[in-house]
Amino acid sequence: QVNSKQGGSPCQEKQVVLLSPLGRIEISGCETGVHEIKLPKMSVLPSGAEPSGACEVCEGAEEMPEPLQQCTAWLRAYFCEPATTGSLPVPAFHHPLLQRDSFTRQVLWTLLNDVKFGEAVSYKQLADLAGNSRAARAVGAAMRSNPIPIIIPCHRVIRSSGDSGNYGGGQLMKEWLLAHEKLQKEKLA
User: What are the Methylated-DNA-[protein]-cysteine S-methyltransferase DNA binding domain coordinates in residue numbering (predicted)?
Assistant: First the structure.
């Protein structure tokens, strides 16, 4: 249960599981917004970064609040028809980290709004974009605490050296997501 800021009443939290090319993605949220997206831990990379039709809600489809419907639609599009994600609404978020005014929130919103599909940005570049050029380490901390991976695309943040860097879902998943986006962007070009 997550307490909302207004009045402190607990949310009616719902859970949805989306079967994706990466495995089971667990999404939780309420009527107000998405709380978090939990990525599966991967030890083997799925074959190919091709979009696949295999991306379905397998649990929790009944009584899904609107933010979860939007979230699953967005993720399904991301994996299956990436060109359409730009035209879909980004679901509302209702995680405490994204409610408070903080540098982490600023970094996550900047990443969501400014770093587009198929692009990558260094920790330092993202710190610049978020308004504090000397905060590359703080950007790293913000990426580690991102409750909404993939939609808030922390996988697009890489080291200045070009090395992919760390990722909450693991190195293999980060490389798969970057390859998936690169492939789709080339197809659209």
Answer: 105-182
